[in-house]
Design brief:
alpha/beta; 6 helices; 46% helix; globular; binds D-ribose
Length: 147
């Protein structure tokens, strides 16, 4: 898969290791920045990743800020994006299996590198189960298409 990734200054500390790890898992990575830990505004980066996933350039997205919260709030404003903000791998996997999440966010001030890698692996390996979960996601996408 082609995976979009970005952080803000607070999330930057984890980004290089996560980029490398996603490549080790056999995926292509498009890094939307930033290139260093100078202060930036997280919504700018959440929007770059979310637009690339919503537009079909990338298959899934990974966002890292201080808590994961601002990134998720922003990403979920983009039509077609379902972003879960998580701190462990069970929720990351479930975000794919039950919610068909296409973006995941987490906080570099909340999780360390090993937990972040577990989160990313679970997210990338999870597969949407459809069925009743599809009915629920359809309620979301139907609402989104009328508003
Ligand atoms: C930056 O200080 C911090 O607010 C940001 O990384 C993020 O945690 C916002 O949700």
């Amino acid at each position: 898969m082609k995976i979009a990734i970005a952080s803000d200054h607070a999330g930057f500390i984890l980004k290089p290791a996560i980029v490398e790890y996603i490549r080790e898992l056999g995926h292509e990575v498009k890094d939307f920045g930033p290139a260093d830990d100078n202060r930036v505004n997280y919504p700018d980066y959440a929007l770059k990743v979310s637009e690339s996933v919503a537009g079909g350039e990338c298959d899934l997205g990974v966002l890292i800020c201080g808590t994961g919260i601002g990134m998720a709030i922003t990403a979920n404003k983009v039509k077609g994006i379902r972003c879960g903000s998580v701190s462990e791998s069970y929720s990351a996997r479930m975000s794919r299996e039950h919610n068909n999440a296409n973006v995941i966010s987490f906080g570099a001030r909340v999780v360390g590198e090993d937990i972040a890698k577990d989160i990313v692996k679970a997210f990338l390996e999870g597969e949407f189960q459809g069925g009743r979960h599809g009915d629920r996601v359809k309620i979301i996408t139907d609402y989104e298409s009328c508003h």
